[in-house]
Amino acid sequence: MFTHAITRxxxxxxxxxxxxxxxxxxxxxxxxxxxxxxVGTLKELGLSVIxxxxxxxxxxxxxVEDPAIVLPEVAVISRPGAPSRRGERASLEAVLxxxxxxxxxxxxxxLEGGDVLVIGRAVFIGLSERTNRPGAEQLARILSRYGYHSxxxxxxxxLHLKSSVNYVGKNSVxxxxxxxxxxxxxxxxxxxxxxxxxxxxxxxLLNEHLITxxxxxxVKAMLDSLGLPIIELDMSEAxxxxxxxxxxxxxx
Length: 252
Ligand code: CIR
What we know:
alpha/beta; three-stranded mixed beta sheet; binds citrulline
């Protein structure tokens, strides 16, 4: 069970966040209310939520999953592949220093938390435009001290690994078609979303509930087969910045 989460309020500058989505700029007011609903959901699921203030100089800072990886044993301060996101770390590190021993990804390594999928002691690290091999190797080395085993997964598509693959409980992963037959996930049952539903592959398993983006009935029907309660959240504005449900919080 997770007991805590860290989130960060989106600021008005969120409209200048990085994006490849071609869906237009987010509406700040709507993004704020969707973010509030997200935080409310985390609280309903029993988490105590630390809400950090917006970062006026860092438009993508509400996507707190990327600058750090938090596990029971350690918090790893990452080195985001997007240079504009590296300044997000300082305030996050100040909080995490009170909660966990810290480790760091150092240059020339780059790594973003969206590329790190942890299932038990198995860690899957996407090699993406944001996460390079040196960064992945550093993380694997740090986590191996605590008994985690890492597998590297070169990505052809998608911003991060968790844009395409997420653990949804019951030994199952929700994946985009690219990962339907991927060797790295052969130990898991696969729920494969249609190409048009790829955004909903970023579904969040949290305390025996599934939080999934609203508007993807076929994905919801697939998830129903797992027998876990499902919560749908409107993610229209974060989606415009390539942001999903996992990236809006660190859970621990
Ligand atoms: C970025 O491009 O860095 C942000 N606009 C979105 C980050 C999304 N992060 C995630 O899915 N873990």
